[in-house]
Amino acid sequence: MKVNYQNNRDISFNGFLNNKILKKGLEFASENGTLFAATTTLALSGIRPLAILATPKTDKKNKQVACAKSLTSSINGYLIALICSLPLSRAIKRIDNKPKEFLKKETIQILKDSNKTLTESKAYSLATQTFKLGLGLLIAAPKSVLTALGMPYLLNIIENNNEGLNKKNTNNITNFKGKNNLSKGIGKILDNKNFQKFVDRFKDTNFPLHIVATTDIISTGVFINQANKSKNIQEKDKPALIYNSIISTVLSILSTYTIDGLTKKQTDEFIKRYKIANKKDPNLAKQIEGIKIAKPILIAGIVYYILIPIVSTFLADRIKINSKEA
Question: Which of the listed residues 10, 78, 100, 173 has the most CB atoms within 10 Å of its CB?
Answer without folding.
Answer: 78
